[in-house]
Amino acid sequence: MLKSNVTKLVGIFIGIILVLLLMWSSVIFGLTKITPQMVIDAFSNFNGSNEHIIIKDVRIPRALIAAAVGANLAIAGTIMQGLTNNPLASPSIFGVNAGASFFVVFGISTLGISSLATLSWFAFAGAALAAVLVYVLGSMGRDGMTPVKLTLAGAAMAALFSSFTQGILTMNERALDQVLFWLAGSVQGRDLQILISVLPYLIVGWIFATFIGKQMNILSMGEDVAKGLGQKTIIVKIFGAIIVVLLAGGSVAIAGPIGFIGIIIPHISRWLVGIDYKWVIPYSGLLGATLLLLADIGARYIIMPAEVPVGVMTALIGAPFFIYIARRGFDR
C-alpha cells in the first residue's frame, strides 16, 4: 500500500503520533473522570488527591506498559513468521507465552518467589525452553522443518505448558488467587517497576530487531539462496530466537500471556509496506502498541465499573483473524 520510502517514513511519523495520542487517551479515559488539566497538575502541582494518585500510579504506568507489551508481541510475531516462513507463527500459538507463564507460576506458587527481577528470568527461561522444544519437534522427520509441523508442535507445547500450569494451580489454591487475573493477560494494576525491571532486556531485543531486518530479507528468499549469498543462516536464526525470547518473555513477565497480537499485526504491516523487514519490523512495533492500547481502553467500558482483561479483548479481535489466515493456508 505504501510504495515509496518517503510515504513509509510519513507512515512511521503518523504511527508515533497515533501511539502518543492513544497513550494520552489511556490516561484520560476510565471509570474515574480525568481531565487534561488534572494530568498537567499531577506533575506540576501534585496535591495528593485521588485523581492525581490514579494518574501517576495507575494510568500512566498502564499506558506505558500497554504500549511496550503490544510492540514487543508484534515484533516477536513478525520475526517468528519471517524465520519459520509460517503465517500462523506467534508467541501464543507456538507455546512461547505458555512456557513463560508456566515458569512464572511455578516460581510464584512453588518456590515462593516475589522478586520481579527473578520472575523475569523465570519468564525468559520458560520462553526459551518452549521455543527450543517447538523448533526441535518441528524439525524432526524426513522433511525437516515445515510450517505445518511447526504449528502442530507449537500447539502441542502450548497445551502441555498450559496443563502444567493448571495442575500447579489445582494443587495450590492460594497461588490461584495470586495469578488468576495475571494469567488472563492484563495491564491493569501493573506497577511501573515491573516494566523498569525488564526494560534492559527489552532494549536489547529492540536493538537486535532494528538490525536483523536486512538479514531476514535475505533469509526470506530461501535458506539455500541465503547460504549461496554467504549468509550464516544459523546465526540469523539464533539472533532471531534471542529477540523473541527477550520480547515475548519480558511481556509475559509484565502482563501475562496476551495472545493474537503477534499473529494479527505482522500481516497488517506487510499489507501496508510489503515484505521488506526493515520496514515491517518498526511498523509492527507501532501497530502492536496501537492495538493493545485500543484494546485496553475498550476493555474499561464493556462491563463498567468492572473491567475485562485485555487478553480477552485481543482474543475477541484476533480469533476471527486467525481463522481467516488458517483458511487461506500457508501460502503467502
From TrEMBL:
InterPro entries, per database record: ABC_BtuC-like (IPR037294), ABC_transptr_permease_BtuC (IPR000522)
Q: Which UniProt keywords apply?
A: Cell membrane, Membrane, Transmembrane, Transmembrane helix, Transport
Is Mitochondrion found in the keyword set?
A: no
Return the Pfam families for the record: FecCD
> What domain of life?
Bacteria
- Cellular component terms per the entry's GO annotation: plasma membrane
List residues traversing the bilayer: 12-31, 60-80, 92-113, 119-138, 150-172, 192-213, 234-265, 277-295, 307-326
Q: Which GO terms describe its biological process?
A: siderophore-iron import into cell
The membrane topology of this protein is: Multi-pass membrane protein
Q: Which GO terms describe its molecular function?
A: transmembrane transporter activity
* Cell compartment(s), UniProt: Cell membrane
Record's family?
Belongs to the binding-protein-dependent transport system permease family. FecCD subfamily.
Protein name, entry field: Iron complex transport system permease protein
Species assigned in the record = Salirhabdus euzebyi
Q: What is the lineage of its organism?
A: Bacteria, Bacillati, Bacillota, Bacilli, Bacillales
